[in-house]
Specification:
Number of domains: 2
Order of helices and strands: HHHHHHHH
Largest sheet: none
Distance between the termini: 76 Å
Number of helices: 8
Radius of gyration: 31 Å
């Protein structure tokens, strides 16, 4: 074993020993030297000092991550390289994941150390906060990509590439917004309210609007087909087409009304 390997192993052992010592694995020995241990922030004990040192780095690392996201957005705006978009997407995803983990680490430490017997009780609250944080990052990222795509479309005016990227960005962002909206519905049904009443209410309203619009269109077509039958009296071919149209629209209107009644009876009641 070389000297460098020995130094690396000693350094790794020191890093592993520091948190264990800070959180009381070697409590008896350290208490004789440096006083009692504490995992709360603000005290002068060994555990508090180590915890404050580590958590003080969270703000600095978060600032660096935000600067990296802004720099990536500016580079993507200026650059016209096709591969830059994929690189920027990977960078933003990696930095966002790192920010989530870094900001979640103190909460996990608080749950495991400060509340040893009740840490699991705040797990659902931390999950809700994690989802909200990720939702905010996703919304900011969507806005950045939309602005960048718009700028690229303006810069490359007259070319097909800019408009193609803009259309793809709009479709992707629209799909992302739908996913976020679905997340809100699922979270309300599974985590918050723990009842499907919210989802059923929205589905019922959507179905009512859709079926009402379909019934409105069918009514207009039915009136139009009736006028065609009146105008084309004596013209067998046009009259037959108008009559068949009236029959088809009438059947479709009946189906729509039955569906609307089923929605009212099954979902709402």
């Amino acid at each position: 074993m070389t000297h460098r390997s020995v130094i690396r192993w000693l350094g790794a052992s020191l890093l592993w020993a520091m948190p264990m010592a800070a959180y009381g694995y070697f409590e008896d020995t350290i208490q004789h030297v440096g006083g009692s241990l504490s995992s709360g922030i603000g005290g002068a004990e060994f555990g508090s000092i180590f915890q404050v040192m580590i958590e003080s780095l969270v703000g600095m690392v978060s600032l660096v991550g935000i600067v990296m996201i802004v720099r990536t957005g500016l580079t993507l705006t200026i650059s016209q390289d096709e591969g830059q978009f994929a690189k920027a997407k990977k960078t933003i995803i990696a930095v966002s994941a790192a920010l989530i983990i870094i900001n979640l680490a103190p909460r996990i430490a608080e749950a495991l150390i400060s509340y040893q017997s009740g840490g699991a009780g705040i797990l659902d609250t931390e999950i809700k906060g994690l989802l909200s944080f990720f939702e905010t990052v996703a919304a900011i990222t969507a806005i950045i990509f939309l602005i960048v795509s718009g700028i690229r479309a303006v810069v490359s005016y007259g070319g097909e590439d800019g408009w193609t990227h803009l259309k793809r960005a709009i479709i992707s962002i629209g799909a992302g917004i739908l996913v976020i909206a679905a997340k809100l519905l699922i979270a309300n049904a599974v985590v918050y309210e723990r009842t499907p009443s919210g989802i059923l209410s929205i589905i019922s309203k959507f179905m009512q609007v859709l079926l009402s619009f379909g019934a409105f269109v069918a009514t207009i077509v039915l009136i139009w087909a009736g006028l065609l039958m009146i105008v084309n009296l004596g013209k067998d071919e046009q009259y037959t087409r108008a009559k068949n149209l009236v029959i088809r629209v009438g059947i479709g209107l009946i189906i729509i009304l039955v569906s609307l009644a089923l929605v009212q009876f099954v979902i709402i009641n």
